[in-house]
Amino acid sequence: MTHRAVLLDTSFFLRFLNDNDALFKNADGYFRYFIQHKIHMVVSTISIAEYCVGGDIHELPLKNL
Question: Per the structure, how many domains does the chain have?
Answer without folding.
Answer: 1
